[in-house]
Structure formats: structure tokens, C-alpha cells
Amino acid sequence: MQTELKPCPFCGNPPKLFGKKIREIDGETMRVMPERTEWEVVPYCQITCVLGHAFSAAYGIHGAGGYKTPEAAIKAWNRRANDDKG
After folding, report:
1. Where are the alpha helices (DSSP H) in 1-84?
2. Which of 19, 35, 53, 66 is deepest in the core (most CB within 10 A)?
3. In the chain, which residue ranges form alpha helices assigned H by DSSP?
4. Among the listed residues 14, 34, 13, 30, the one whose alpha carbon sits nearest the alpha carbon of residue 22
5. Which range marks the domain in which residue 64 is found?
6. Is 53 domain-assigned?
7. For the purposes of burial, counting CB atoms within 10 Å of the CB of 17, is it exposed (0-12), middle (13-18) or buried (19 or more)?
8. How far are the Cα atoms of 6, 7, 19, 83 from residue 68, in angstroms, in the given order?
């Protein structure tokens, strides 16, 4: 499994991997659900690189929930349309 993040395909700046703790309460029983971690890749693109931010949002890599493992988030970010290796 690949663990290194590729740079932004548009501006070349490196992204960062973040994990965030999620705590939820069941609305019916008011029980605290088990805590979990969601992972996402956040692009740190140049201010003029609109495509890097659009790419990550369009593919659900950043800002649309999270991945269950760091490896899944990395694989999603590193995936390129012309690269079948992921």
C-alpha cells in the first residue's frame, strides 16, 4: 500500500493528511456512540490553484466526510485519471 502523498497535479504543492475524531450521540436512545477517526487529505495549493481544491472536493477527498483509514484517503488523493496504479 502506498503511504506517500503525491503533490497536487496542478500546482505541485504537497498536501497533508489529517485524522479527526468523531463523536456522535444516538438521537433516539441518547447513547454516546463509539468514537471513530475519519481521515482526509487537505491540499495546500498555491492561492492561484483553484483546480487542486476543486479536484479534492469533487472526488470527496476533502470536505465531504472522511475515509475509515489513512491508506484509503491517500489512495483516493493519489489516484490520477491516467494512472491505473492508484
Report:
1. 50-58, 70-78
2. 66
3. 50-58, 70-78
4. 34
5. 16-78
6. yes
7. middle
8. 20, 22, 9, 23
Residue 32, classified by CB atoms within 10 Å of its CB into exposed (0-12), middle (13-18) or buried (19+), is: exposed
* Domain count across the chain: 1
pLDDT, one tens digit for every residue, the chain (86 residues): 567 898 887 788 888 888 888 888 887 888 888 888 988 888 777 666 666 666 666 555 555 568 889 998 888 888 865 555 54
Which amino acid belongs to residue 49?
Answer: C
Q: Quick check: helix, strand or coil at residue 73?
A: helix
Parallel, antiparallel or unpaired: strands 16-22 and 36-42: antiparallel
Q: What is the pLDDT of residue 86?
A: 47
Establish if 1 belongs to a structural domain: no
The number of beta carbons lying within 10 Å of the beta carbon of residue 69 is 14
**DSSP state letter for 32:** B
